[in-house]
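Task: encode each sequence below as structure tokens.

Item 1
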Amino acid sequence: MLTHDAALEWITRWDRQQEGYLPDREERFTALIDAVEAMGRPDPLVIDLGCGPGSLSARLLERLPKATVISVDADPLLLGLGRAAYPHVRFVSLDLRTPGWTESLSLERPADVAVSTTALHWISGPDLQKMYAELAAALRPGGLLLNGDHMETDDATPAVAHLERAVHSRETERRFAGDRPEDWRQWWDAVAADPAFAELHAARTTAGADHHGSESPLLSAHVDALRDAGFTEIGTLWQRGDNRLLCAVRG
């Protein structure tokens, strides 16, 4: 059995290995939650897309305890970890690439905001377009998408894109000089070796939940798909190198 305390320890390790790729991860979380809070509603309805073990969802509820957060992911192991650590969060097992996924959320009203961090780049361009179109229908007019991720601009401004990556790389080197945390693969290997995860690991293998590469790394791919889906204002709220928080307003 995966206990509550053990789950929290594993999520602490998850957060640490994620920071190895995103040294400004907590700052980006803070900026995202600031934007949700600035919408002016103490009880927003929030959909967390590709929530993983619930790191963002838990932080949102710490700041906005009256919020309703619906946390969506397709990875059985990460969902099991989140459910054990955060019993107050509603986790839903869904593949965002499957049409009709929003109907399975059983929303009582249109959502105020959808959030995501380091997740949507796994979705290919055509699936991304369909996912954003379906998301737009689930948001209220004026509702937001807040997506924090690495988003490249090589297709439009290659020289700037090179500098953005350099800024990110140098910050990572400064933050972790001589003390790099375990990486993504090492974390997963350690989980696979823990007997407490045997059932969840088997479910993950059956579901084919492992990711291979970044399918939609370009900022333009997200902006174009959001515009086609009916989002009228799209811009960057926060940025450090190529790590940015993209905001889109549903028309």
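Item 2
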Amino acid sequence: MQVFVTGASGWIGSAAVDELLADGHTITALARSDASASALAAKGVTVQRGDLDDLHGIRRGAQDAEAVLHLANKHDFAHPAVSDAAERAAVQTIGDALSGTGRPFLLAAGIAGVVSGRPVTEDDASPAHGPDSARGGSENLALGFVDRDVHSVSLRFAPTVHGLHDHGFLAVLHDVARRTGVSGYVDDGDHRWAAVHRSDAARLVALGLAKAPAGARLHAIAEEGVPTREIAEAIGRVLDLPVASVPAEKAREHFGWISYFFGQDLSATSTTTRRQLGWEPTGPALVEDILTGAYTTNP
């Protein structure tokens, strides 16, 4: 299958591309920089230069493909409205391009804000609708294209997709600990974060393309919820730093923007996903990854 991929050189995207190539797919990927273009070309990927603001290029890539995997996001946490607007515009463009074709459209989503007080399941619809909502309401927008004969599938990734040389949320928490001299957690640290290893997340993407029914919400969740206190304790151990509670009212001052996420319970299950796809995670657990140096070993 010819697959058009956005975010192909990113943390999840680069691993997902390897899985898709191994499964025999051919890939055209959107690349913003020379470095990304070179890395993708070295894998045998056809490079299409452009970024999330190049809607004409995104439309062309989607129209020419047999399937689309949309993983790119600006991740501008200081200016979320910018990221949300770009995300919605890209999803709208892809959906319009695929309408009436029955072709697969897989997009990255998350579990934050879906429900509170319990783990998120695949049956839980996102409450985010419209351009002013989280992520521009992109998950519901994409799944709405099922009614226009698009095989849309949501890929909900755990808040931490961890692994060696990850530069995401866990890397930020390590940096905060180094900067402040303490590995902190918010209040009692009983908030839980779902987690998945990068290799398992990438395999889920490939299985989702091959097997997921239209309208499915897939959960890339290996661990339902790791207490944030345990995360902080593991970081403190590898960095040889003290571990301490940070009161919620001081969390923003201590952690910066990531306090919004680290102070939330972001737990989720993947029972339905495992049953639908036959997916079973095999990668290391989150705390194991931290303790074995995934975030302290130089690239």
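Check on item 2: The mean pLDDT is 95. The two ends are 33 Å apart (CA to CA).
End of task.
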